[in-house]
Amino acid sequence: MAQDHPLEGTRALVIGGSSGIGLATARLLAADGCRVTIAGRDEQRLVNALRALAADGLTVHPCPCDTLRPMEVADAVAIATEGDSLDIAVTVPGVGTPSRLVDVDPEQFSAEVDANVRPLFLLLKYAVPAMPPGGSIVAVSSTAAAFSTRGLASYKAGKAAVDALVEVAADELGEEGIRVNSVRPGLTRTVSTERLFADEGLFEEFLAGQPLARGGEADDIARAIRYLAGPESSWVTGQHLAVDGGHTLRAFPDMRPAPIEPALEV
């Protein structure tokens, strides 16, 4: 294994690898010599990701995949392994809609919790049988799992479930030499968080809750994932690494929308 390509000869699957944190992770893994497959629902985003990485002299392999559908995740694992083993598996997707808890539709609540934790469950179910001892699974969780997030109940519940599943999986799979960890990003600039960065008042609230007063970038999170994915963290499992500018030392902003005033009757 060459020192400048420490992941030479390994294979990785990055679920949600076509943009943001997933794309930044795929770039680091590929640059270190790993054969990387990126999976995602949006085929145009996959094409765009391939072009962006090719411009950096990197080759990755695309795979359309709905992370909530078992057979599509199983197919993504098969494509990533090509009949061989899978050394690294990363899952990024997550979703949450700001709302007061009592205003959330029950079906939407269940769907959003599922959209956060189900991709990890399916990745564990289908990736683990293809993993040799030394394999590493990394889930992108959130600082929301660590403290109260007013206005994001379904998101917190889903990410807390991710971290709970990480702990159980790490405990069970350690017997097979497979490690499972999560990364908890703070407010990180991606397509899905552009609105938060654009809202000056809310962004300032986030920064006021952090010792390091800047927003996160996708590369900040990708570097932590790369550490947990590789041999550098070979004695680390069942852990949740916060990459958040110190945000979890303080408090999460109130994300609840302003209450809707009832119409006046005249």
Can you tell me about this structure?
It is a single chain. With 266 residues, the chain is of the alpha/beta class. The chain has one domain (11-243): NAD(P)-binding Rossmann-like Domain (Rossmann fold), CATH 3.40.50. The chain has 8 helices and 9 strands. It has helices at residues 20-31, 43-55, 70-81, 106-127, 153-173, 194-198, 200-208, 218-229; strands spanning 11-15, 35-40, 61-64, 88-91, 136-140, 179-185, 188-189, 216-217, 240-243. α2 links the parallel β2 (35-40) and β3 (61-64). It is globular and about 55 Å long. The mean pLDDT is 94.
Question: Taking Cα atoms only, what radius of gyration do you get, to the nearest Å?
Answer: 19 Å
> What is the CATH class designation?
Alpha Beta
Number of domains: 1
Discrete helix count = 8
Please give the share of residues in helix.
Answer: 25-40%
Quick synopsis:
The chain is an alpha/beta fold.
List the helices and strands and how they pair.
Layout: E1 11-15, H1 20-31, E2 35-40, H2 43-55, E3 61-64, H3 70-81, E4 88-91, H4 106-127, E5 136-140, H5 153-173, E6 179-185, E7 188-189, H6 194-198, H7 200-208, E8 216-217, H8 218-229, E9 240-243
Parallel strand pairs: 1-2, 1-4, 2-3, 4-5, 5-6, 6-9, 7-8
Helix pairs in contact: 1-8, 3-4, 4-5
